[in-house]
Amino acid sequence: MLRSAILGAAFLGLAAPALATTFTFETAKPVDDSRVTVIGTVWTCEGTVCTGDMDRKKVTLRDCKKIAKKTGEITSFKNDKYELSAEDIETCKASARD
């Protein structure tokens, strides 16, 4: 009986989807493509706003820089709980593609 319960719990743990958080970034100019893949995430973009699901909780300057290299100058990067500071956004802008 205990073995069945353990196996059942293990199966549910493997079958459960990863907890992804929706992130949003905004660019200074419209993004050329409606879908952009950066840092293993497919971002869906409409004009200057792009959204994507990532398996992490917080926004990071490192991720912002990687996105900016591919999409251009970032003016905000956030999810429902965290947002990059104005200082970090300015640092991120320096990584933008030309």
UniProtKB/TrEMBL annotation:
Stated name of the protein: DUF5666 domain-containing protein
InterPro entries reported in the protein's UniProt record: CC_3452-like, DUF8200
Keyword check for S-adenosyl-L-methionine: no
Signal peptide: 1-20
Keyword GTP-binding attached: no
Keywords linked to the UniProt accession: Signal
